[in-house]
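Subject: DUF7144 domain-containing protein

B.,
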Amino acid sequence: MTDQKLSSSATGSREPVGPWATGLAIFAAIVLMMSGAFGALEGFVAIVRDDFYVVTPHYLFGYDTTAWGWVHLLVGVVVAAAGFAIVAGYLWARIVGVIVAVLSALVNFLYIPYYPLWSMLIIALDVLVIWALCRYDREAADPDRY
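Prediction pasted inline below.
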């Protein structure tokens, strides 16, 4: 039998976590750090100069850009902090990372009329982050475990 763990409900062992899941978890943390920093910057721009973003006409959702600036600034700081905590290896950080990635996707969905391509890109990255953080298991990925 190899050192690779097999999935078994009777023994309670975990299924193997490959290098893709581990690498994508680190990638997810870095994406969270970067998108959080860019989101905070985007929010800062909307706060300082609220006429910078142009709203598309006849969109279902319409909000004040200064208010959206504060939302993006706060969400961006929390998202970046979660990314740093994930790199540090905390379990709670992965849970918070999934929650803030969902929140980030929702915020960017509502922000589509102001910055459509960027919002859709961040939503796609948030989906990848959610998958990577849900798939990764630090204990199962530890090569020194056996």
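Residues 33 and 81 are 7 Å apart (CA to CA).

T.
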